[in-house]
Design a protein that fits this description.
The chain has one domain: Alpha-Beta Barrel (TIM Barrel). Helices cover 35% and strands 18% of the residues. The chain is built from 7 helices and 9 strands. It is globular and about 50 Å long. Belongs to the polysaccharide deacetylase family. Keywords: Hydrolase, Metal-binding. This is Chitooligosaccharide deacetylase.
Length: 242
């Protein structure tokens, strides 16, 4: 049994209502669970079951293409009380694209996800993460000016490496213990992540960590957006649905 670093009595922690990235202030022993790139049939639903069994919620940064391909699964994520954000339409490296193409891909992703989630749970939240964490000053500033909450990463599990589930668990725990809190990045598209998550959650519970549920300050999609796109479903000059 690992030594108890913190003194939480329940893995489920507080709900943090966020209107901007500056609002994400975690206390020692608090973590936010995030999952990128889904939803993925055969993987995402098992991750949802594990989260539910441990009484915690996560933030899922979905790809518009995946939400569109698997709409019922995307809706299930939201209906189970998890928060859904945007991760672009097809996971392109936005830093290598023209400004307009990058903004188009972000807007297209938001449109696809918002359409799929219409009426499900809290709908699309304003949370966004750059694929590969690759960004430019222009893109980040544009997101922030559009009242989009950019989610950075404090602890990257690197669950995409071809390693065992235990390797990922030990690396992630080491990094988490060194920081004492933070936003953890997983991906709900890998079997090793499905396999490791129950053990990982048991381990952080044993160490006294609590999982913070991230929610937008105003329910549903809110704020304005400077993102404009010339893509299917989004007319040039009109705001994307963030």
């Amino acid at each position: 049994m690992p030594r108890r670093i913190f003194h939480g009595t329940s893995l489920a922690g507080r709900t943090l209502e966020v209107g901007s990235a500056a609002d994400i202030q975690l206390k020692p022993g608090e973590v936010i669970l995030t999952f990128d790139d889904g939803p993925r049939p055969g993987k995402t639903e098992h991750i949802l079951d594990t989260l539910e069994a441990h009484g915690v919620k996560a933030t899922f940064l979905m790809l518009g293409s995946q939400a569109k391909a698997h709409p019922e699964l995307a809706r299930e994520v939201a209906l189970r009380g998890n928060t859904v954000g945007n991760h672009t339409y097809d996971h392109a490296d936005l830093a290598k694209m023209s400004r307009q193409d990058a903004m188009d891909d972000i807007a297209r992703g938001a449109t696809a996800i918002a359409t799929v989630l219409d009426g499900a749970g809290g709908g699309l939240s304003p949370f966004f993460r750059f694929p590969y964490l690759a960004q430019t000053g222009f893109l980040r500033t544009s997101m922030l000016q559009g009242d989009v909450v950019v989610l950075d990463v404090d602890i990257d599990s690197k669950d995409y490496y071809a390693e065992t589930a235990d390797d990922v668990i030990q690396r992630t725990l080491k990094r988490l213990d060194a920081r004492g809190s933070g936003i953890i990045l997983f991906h709900d598209i890998h079997q090793r992540t499905v396999d490791l998550l129950p053990v990982f959650l048991d381990e952080i519970a044993a160490r006294g960590y609590t999982v913070v549920s991230l929610k937008p300050r105003t329910p549903g999609v809110f704020g304005r957006s400077v993102v404009t796109a010339s893509v299917a479903g989004v007319k040039t000059g009109q705001p994307a649905p963030f």
